[in-house]
Structure formats: structure tokens, C-alpha cells
Amino acid sequence: MPATLKRLSDIKAPNLVDFDRIGMMDEMIDRIKSDPEWNSNWDGELWQNSSFMIMNFFTFLYEKGFNYFNKAIKENFLMEGIDENSILNIIFQRGISLVQNRHSKVTATGIVQNDDFLTEDLVIPLLQSINATDLNGQTVPFEFIKMASDGKPDYLNPVVVDIANSNRQVFNVDLYSGISREIEFELGGVSTAGFFIDIDIQDIIENSIRIYYEFGSVKQIELPEISSFVRKNLELVGPQVGIYAKDFPYGIPSWIAKFNGDGSVRIFFGTKEFGGTFGDTAGKKLTIKLRTGGGELSNIIRRGLDSVLVIDIGGNETKTIAFVNESDGGGGADREDILTIREFAALRTGREKAIVQDLD
Q: What residues contact 156, with CB distance under 8 A and at least 6 apart?
């Protein structure tokens, strides 16, 4: 007699909860016998075949389970893990900051045109940018932006050329490759503690993120970045007084940045015990400022930057100024001495394991 194959969708799943092994086998036999194509002459092998099926089924489940548990355990060890997300999490938990793109810095010479000269300090418009040509002949933007004492960009104050310390017709000014960007996040009366914000922008420049609470209002304040959340003594911290009493009942909230393999970032906020939290968030927002770009392609050759700007100096007057770099630009854009997460992840394909030297 020809064999009859039935689709799995036509066979009801066995009861694996209410029965023991013998009960499951009896149920299976009853179902086989209830099939209209069943022949009673086949009774002799039912018990043996159903027993084998049960054993094979649970063997399969155990194998799958043990493989999963084994993999889950290994992914918690840097020397054994393979998944890129596991590696990122381990590095983040160890407080290691992943290397990101760095901006190039170029010192440009500004030359006042039309036989003119500066009569007062020159205020260059905030985040004014000009284009330059990189080593591959591609166009890359450079911004007039200052670096604050903490090493991060100063997004609030424009670059000022002080005529007391420079020539009134020819002067030097620093520019940095990349573009500044701004993202707004509505707290909306819901996000108060223990939440995170994903920023899917790639190639964020290292050490360029600043986060402001209620930017542009009388309550504008920058939230500090930290490397780890530290438990607070709430008796010493709160309650707060002044204009932030309802906003920050347990001190100004801090945040931690965790970078992903593609250069995007996740911003973590703490709780009232760890890192501080928000109070009344109805109608409140966060403003995240950062810079993107940088990297080795932002290095430029001599005179790779050569542009003319017409700058409004007030009183219906303008100054036409040519900017040019007389030397190579891009000091420190690349960090070849440190393995980036992209390079590190590239070593972890297949079953290959990392070695200690990978992080040296």
C-alpha cells in the first residue's frame, strides 16, 4: 500500500502540558487510529513509533534549549561573544567609550577685501559654514565654531575676532569640519525617569553632544553628561528650591551616551536615586545639539578652503572677507592608535573569537 503523507497543518498538536509521557503516547495513538485512512493491521508498531517520536521530540527541544543557553552565556563574555550587540553592551558596561569620528581643525587666514579693514570686533554669524575640498577632491563643510573649556563645541556663542589681539586687515580663525544639528524631544508629562532616547543619526562626532532642558526659555539649563550613574543620598539632595523645584526634585538629571556600531547613539537617563530625574514634565522638552561628519575625509590640503563671505556688522554695513588655509588642515581627525567598534566588530565574524590585543 502506498504511504500517505499528511501536511503538518492537518495534524493537531499533541497535548504536552496535561499528560505524562505515557499519556502523550496514548493520545497520539488515538489520533492515528481516528484517521479514516488508518488500517487496524498496523497496530503492532504504534506503541514503538510513538515512543520514538516522543523521545526524538524532547531530544530536539533539549538540544535547542541547551544551545540557546550556552550561546546566551557566551555572549556575556568579551572573549567568547560573537553578536555585535553583545560586544557593544559589554564594552558599554565596562565604561569604555567607543571611538567615534573626530573633526578636522583648520586655521584659516581671513583677509578683509576692497582695501577695507576692521573697525570693531568681527562677530561671525553663529555656526556659519563654508565648504572646502578634501584629499579626494570632494566637498566637505567647515564651521566657524568655538570649543569650550570642557572640550565640547560651544553652540551658544559665535566666533568673535578681537581686533585688540589681531591685525585689522589680516587675521587667523579656527574652523572645524562637520555640521551642527539640533533635535527636540518632547518629555510630554510621561518621560520622567529611567528612559532613553535613540538618535538614529550616524557618524556623530566624538564629544559633541550637549543636551539642554527648556532651551530658549528662562529655565534653559544644560544637563551634564556622566560616565556612570552614582547613587544619590536623597536626604541631602532634595527637596529642591527656586525655579527648578518642580522640574528637578532630586537634582539636575544627568545622562550617559551609548554609541552603536553605525555611529548612532542611545541617550540614557537615570532615576531619582541614580543620576537624578525629572519632576513635572508636562509641556517640557529637551533640545539635543550635536555635530556630524568628520573622519579622515575631512582632512584638507593647502588652500583646500578658499571662500569669500559677506558679513553683516550692523548699522547697514558689511565686510567682505576672504578665508583661505595656507597650510594643511585636519590635525587629529583620525585616531589610528585605537581600534574602532567597526574594526572590532569586523574581527568577530563567524565563530571567530576576540583576543586581548583587539582592545589594545
A: none
Stretch among 1-5, 118-122, 143-147 having the lowest mean pLDDT: 1-5
Cα separation values, 286 from 17, 19, 52, 85, 317, Å: 51, 56, 62, 27, 37
Sign of the torsion formed by the C-alpha atoms of 328, 333, 338 and 342: negative
What is the separation, in whole angstroms, between the first and last Cα of the chain? 69
Please count the CA atoms within 13 angstroms of the CA of 323 that sit on its side-chain side.
23
Q: What is the pLDDT of residues 289-341, one digit of tens each?
A: 999 986 554 567 777 888 899 999 888 889 999 999 876 655 444 433 334 44
For residue 241, what pLDDT band results from cuts at 50, 70 and 90?
low
pLDDT digits (tens, 9 = 90+) for 136-187: 778 889 999 999 999 999 999 999 998 877 678 899 999 998 999 999 999 8
Q: Which three cell numbers stand for residue 20?
A: 505524562
Query: Within the chain, what is the greatest distance between any pair of CA atoms?
Result: 112
How far apart, in Å, are the Cα atoms of 160 and each of 164, 166, 259? 11, 11, 33
**Backbone φ and ψ of 63, nearest 5°:** -65, -45
Q: What angle do CA 277, 266, 140 make, to 5 degrees?
A: 125
DSSP code, position 251: B
Please give the pLDDT value at position 158.
95
Residue partners of 39: CB distance under 8 A and separation at least 6: 1
Residue 345 cell numbers, joined: 566588530
Instruction: Quote the CA–CA distance of 153 and 156 in Å, as a whole number.
Output: 9
Measured CA to CA in angstroms, residue 47 lies from 6, 54, 61, 194, 287 at distances of 20, 11, 21, 56, 69
Q: At which residue does the C-alpha cell 559589554 appear?
A: 90
List, edge to edge, every strand of the sheet that includes 265-269: 196-199, 265-269, 255-259
Q: Is 238:183 a contact under the CB 8 Å cutoff? A: no
Please state, in angstroms and rounded to a whole number, the distance separating the CA atoms of residues 57 and 53. 6
Closest CA to 14 of 2, 1, 26: 26
The answer to whether the predicted template modeling score (pTM) of the entire model surpasses 0.85 is no
Q: How far apart are CA 276 and CA 272, in angstroms?
A: 4
